[in-house]
Automatic annotation (TrEMBL):
Record keywords: Hydrolase, Metal-binding
UniProt-recorded Gene Ontology molecular function terms: iduronate-2-sulfatase activity; metal ion binding
UniProt xrefs under CDD domains: sulfatase_like
This protein's record includes keyword Transmembrane: no
Pfam annotation, one family: Sulfatase
Organism of origin: Shinella granuli
One cellular component (GO) term of this entry: cytoplasm
Protein name: Arylsulfatase A-like enzyme
Domain Sulfatase N-terminal: start-end pairs: 4-340
Top-rank taxon: Bacteria
Gene3D superfamilies from the UniProt entry: Alkaline Phosphatase, subunit A (3.40.720.10)
SUPFAM superfamilies with a match to the protein in the record: Alkaline phosphatase-like (SSF53649)
Length: 511
């Protein structure tokens, strides 16, 4: 068996042709759907970027006990299991620079080898001690300009001074490195290649030929990086932001097409699996919001695309699966493809077994650490918030106390306790770290970041746009009980239940 895993970032399902999207031509996603199984009910798990990747590698939901952080000593990582059990070689090609920050530094070493392509967003790539800030200030919109050291905005501006031609774009270079691996290794057996690009994550930067088809007539400075929060821009500015996102998706479609051409040219469809998905979606003004992290986990963010080609089942090409799946299923899928055994801590199911619509999962649990706990059952979504986000009892359970950019602060660690092992920590005692407002995560992607905190129920059959919360006490009670059961199966700590007014043992709703 051989496998290629393509992972995009912030790729919106509803804009892709196979899911009914018409605003952006995506002929190569259409080609992919014709060659694979398209999953219609695929959801996220833990969010945002690195929590999502921890779920993917380990096959476990992590948001109920930990925010953004590294893989832990007790975590299982499917590339290592493949190496240990089957001798499978794994190679990661990525421009996702979060892997090299404090909060992601244990992920890439789980692969046999890796290639890091530099230059995306705030990657500390190019060094300019005295940039021409006045010239650059005129070039970029004020909301995405900064001359501060170590700011994502400022570093991105410098990086973009070195990305001029199409071949310079990090995502283009990512795929080129992927093809380099394939050129050297496609005739070998027993390998997995992960091609992972940060695009179409913001800033929405693409070569001019992709932008031309979405020209808005914008005459202002570069505007391709929306805020995380409520929409307050003028309509023409909103259109420019969206158009730049469309351009990056068009570039991603083109790069996917080059990979499909490679599969065609070398007949890889016969013996090579292909999985294509993303970590989460991105709001482009829907629900009056930009981005993610700050608002309720609407379908645009939580309901994501997924395609699977399994060479053992060529007859499934062009089919669709209505099974309820989520990101934690990826680990079990790659283990299945290579004949390896999932560890006892695994919560996912193999997508190969669900490609025919078989649905072993009653509900998909997902969320941000410190925010709502959310569940989808294929028709309804239920989003349950604590009564008071600022007063909830909340702890991080970890042996790797780092945030995105830094270690935990002494103030956070001042009141740390030792916690007995949780169900999934293989007997390891943990640090139990109280969440405080001075935590670097609190107002960035934690409780202090949220602009919405109202418990809601939606019926996607009658209200697919989630515009009218449903008042149905019976349905809410059913989903609350399902949520509590899934949390209990996950081994969530006791306060994860009490913060939602659940009884940890019975799952009884006390709200």
């Amino acid at each position: 068996m051989k496998a290629v895993f393509v992972l995009f970032d912030s790729l919106n399902r509803h804009l892709l042709g196979p899911y009914g999207g018409t605003r952006i031509p995506t002929p190569n996603f259409d080609r992919l759907a014709a060659r694979s199984v398209t999953f219609d009910k695929h959801y996220v798990g833990s969010l945002p970027c690195m929590p999502a990747r921890r779920d993917m590698l380990t096959g476990r939901l992590t948001f109920l006990h930990r925010s953004w952080g590294p893989l832990e000593p007790f975590d299982n990582a499917f590339p290592e299991i493949l190496h240990r059990e089957r001798g499978t070689y794994s190679h990661l090609v990525t421009d996702h620079f979060h892997y090299w920050e404090d909060g992601g530094a244990t992920y890439h070493n789980r692969y046999d080898s890796y290639e890091f392509v530099r230059g995306q967003e705030g990657d500390r790539w190019k060094a300019m001690v005295q940039p021409h800030w006045e010239r650059l200030r005129e070039k970029y919109h004020a909301r995405q300009f900064s001359d501060q050291r170590r700011s994502y905005f400022g570093q991105n501006i410098i990086n973009r001074e070195f990305i001029k031609e199409e071949k310079d774009f990090p995502s283009v270079r990512c795929f080129a490195e992927g093809f380099d691996f394939l050129d050297r290794n496609r005739d070998a057996d027993n390998w997995m290649l992960q091609i992972e690009t940060f695009d179409p994550h913001e800033p929405f930067t693409a070569p001019e030929r992709f932008k031309a088809q979405f020209d808005t007539g914008w005459q202002g400075p570069i505007r391709d990086w929306p805020r995380y929060g409520r929409v307050d821009e003028l309509p023409e500015e909103c259109e420019e932001l969206r158009a730049n996102y469309y351009a990056v998706v068009a570039m991603c479609d083109h790069l996917l097409g080059e990979l499909l051409d490679y599969f065609d040219r070398h007949e890889l469809w016969k013996d090579t699996a292909l999985v294509v998905t993303t970590d989460h979606g991105f709001l482009l003004g829907e629900h009056d919001f930009w981005a993610k992290n700050r608002m309720n986990l609407y379908e645009e963010v939580a309901h994501i695309p997924l395609f699977l080609h399994d060479p053992r089942h060529a007859e499934r090409a062009g089919s669709r699966s209505g099974a309820l799946t989520q990101s934690i299923d990826l680990a079990a899928t790659f283990l299945d493809l290579f004949g390896a055994t999932p560890p006892a801590e695994n919560e996912g199911f193999s997508l190969c077994a669900m490609a025919d619509g078989t649905a072993p999962r009653q509900g998909a649990l997902f969320g941000y650490f410190g925010g709502a706990v959310n569940v989808a059952d294929g028709r309804y979504t239920y989003h349950r918030f604590p009564e008071d986000l600022s007063q909830q009892e909340l702890y991080q359970y970890t042996l790797m106390p780092t945030h995105i950019f830094s270690p935990f602060t002494p103030a956070e660690l001042a009141s740390v306790e030792l916690s007995p092992p949780l169900d999934f920590t293989k007997g390891a005692t943990l640090l139990k770290v109280p969440v405080i407002e001075r935590s670097p995560m609190y107002n960035n992607y934690g409780p202090g970041a949220l602009l919405e905190s109202e418990t809601r129920l939606y019926d996607l059959e009658s209200d697919p746009g989630q515009e009218k919360p449903l008042a149905d006490p019976g349905e809410e009670r059913r989903l609350a009980e399902l949520m509590a059961r899934l949390m209990q199966a996950n081994g969530a700590p006791p306060e994860a239940f009490s913060r939602l007014a659940f009884d940890a043992v019975s799952g009884e709703d006390h709200g």
